[in-house]
Specification:
137 residues; 6-stranded antiparallel sheet
């Protein structure tokens, strides 16, 4: 999967794509309007971070490329790629339980902490991506 060269873009299916892990230095794009919200992305080889209306949404270490990111009250779904294994953190509902699916296979149930953060690690290698779905239980 290629990095998102625009850093942040709206897709025709109503999803967002963002992140470029091939960049050597931190680059950002802000005030990106999508469905009435303002988004900001910071991305490079070491980290990718997405904010919506000034609030945390997604962060990965190392940097990643995310395609077709869609968030609803019940689930978050996207495809992630990175040059190696990646750990991402999502902001979800505080103290709630979610089931995490990687490429259609359940990775188990996980609970968010008091601030609603949920961290997941995905094993990847260069030119590999994984479909991620996080569903509220």
């Amino acid at each position: 999967m290629a990095a998102v060269k625009e850093l942040l873009r709206a897709e025709s299916d109503g999803t967002l794509s963002f992140g470029d892990y091939t960049l050597a230095s931190k680059t950002k794009k802000d005030n990106f309007e999508f469905e009435g919200d303002l988004y900001k992305v910071k991305t490079f080889s070491e980290i990718t971070k997405l904010e919506k209306n000034g609030m945390f949404v997604y962060e990965s270490v190392p940097g990643s490329a995310v395609e077709n990111f869609k968030e609803t009250d019940k689930e978050v779904a996207f495809t992630v790629s990175a040059p190696s294994d990646v750990q991402f953190t999502l902001e979800l509902e505080p103290e709630s339980e979610y089931e995490v699916f990687i490429d259609g296979t359940s990775a188990g149930r996980m609970s968010t902490n008091l601030s609603g953060k949920l961290s997941v690690s995905v094993e990847l290698s260069a030119d590999q991506s994984a479909e991620v779905k996080v569903v509220k239980c």
